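Input record, target 12 of the design panel.
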């Protein structure tokens, strides 16, 4: 057991020989042992320095250029759990959200296509009500060889 503080001027190898091009080399993980564990805390570091990394309740953070950054976790992230594919967006403060649903550019769903065919068109505009709760998402297109259809908003369609 090592206690106190120390200094290494050449490099450190944990479970493996040190590498001369880095200060620390860690043996590769195995199926039963990870390379590093940052035990979670319930507080942030009060005066972090550039390069500091810590774990606050499972949210990994690091300090860079006097700014505390969160390491983005996408798997099993509550902000990204949904019923389909969504765009990840960030506001001017760096807060992320995923509220805009992403769809294929071209629509092939039979319920949406049937709604286009049966829609009441006024000045080449229509509001769709596809069966089974389907939606032609804003920005999606369909071309039937006669008209090209564009969703200017969810289920709000223009054709030309």
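The sequence produced for target 12 reads:
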């Amino acid at each position: 057991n090592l206690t106190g503080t120390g200094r290494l001027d050449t490099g450190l190898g944990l479970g493996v020989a040190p590498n001369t091009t880095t200060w620390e080399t860690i043996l590769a993980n195995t199926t039963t042992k990870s390379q590093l564990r940052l035990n979670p805390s319930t507080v942030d570091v009060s005066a972090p320095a550039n390069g500091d990394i810590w774990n606050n309740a499972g949210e990994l953070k690091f300090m860079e250029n006097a700014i505390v950054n969160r390491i983005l976790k996408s798997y099993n992230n509550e902000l990204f759990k949904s019923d389909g594919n969504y765009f990840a967006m960030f506001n001017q403060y760096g807060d992320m959200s995923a509220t805009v649903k992403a769809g294929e550019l071209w629509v092939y769903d039979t319920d949406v296509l049937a709604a286009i065919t049966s829609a009441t068109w006024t000045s080449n505009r229509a509001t769709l009500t596809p069966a089974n709760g389907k939606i032609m998402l804003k920005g999606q297109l369909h071309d039937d060889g006669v008209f090209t259809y564009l969703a200017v908003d969810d289920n709000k369609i223009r054709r030309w």
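The CA atoms of residues 23 and 156 lie 59 Å apart.
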